[in-house]
Amino acid sequence: MSITASATVRGPTSFARRISNAALGIAATILALCGLEARAASQSLTETERRNKMTVEAGFDAWAAGTGSPYDLLADDARWTIEGYSLASKTYPNREAFLREVIRPFNARMKAPLKPAIRNVYADGDTVIVFFDARGIARDGEPYANTYAWFLDMRDDRIVRASAFFDSIAFNEFWTRVRPAE
Question: Pick from 57, 82, 81, 98: which is nearest to 161 by CA?
Fold first, then answer.
């Protein structure tokens, strides 16, 4: 018997069986996808992720309130890297170098302090990612606004390594336009 003849002999029964199997396959796929989606939605942060996320959010809340900042969370030997091509882009080997070369000169250029507004915070293991906007008024009365993404590696509630991304054009314009207060 040839393949064609075989298919013809089993035609109606085979066709119905294929339709039935296809329907079962589709139903099984839908159920599996729903199960994966439900499992992914129900997965919660680990205790470490929850603690790290809450610690960083508290630092940002203090910054927004003017009572502290996420920089208070920096370990003394924290390495902070400003990625890209801004005038401040490089790796700072420790907390003091970063504060001395970037944060204090930045704040000395401001009339009204920079205030953050978090868009989202993500935690994965020991890493917290903060996506936020920040606005303030420079000493020359002009606004400064930028959008940031910080990747913060945490250990024992301290930031031990950071990579920061932001609009370097806006930063460079501000950094060269405004002289720091003496």
Answer: 81
Placement of tokens 């509630």 in the chain? 157
What is the DSSP code (8-state) at residue 179?
P
Q: Which two tokens stand for residue 82?
A: 């400003």
Average pLDDT on 8-17 reads 54
Residue 125 has pLDDT above 70, yes or no: yes
Place of tokens 């003091």: 96
Dist. CA 60–CA 88, nearest whole Å: 22
In the sheet where 127-138 sits, what is the strand order? 91-92, 74-82, 158-166, 143-155, 127-138, 110-124
| Integer angstrom CA distances of residue 120 from 91, 129, 161, 163 | 25, 8, 20, 17
- Give the pTM: 0.76
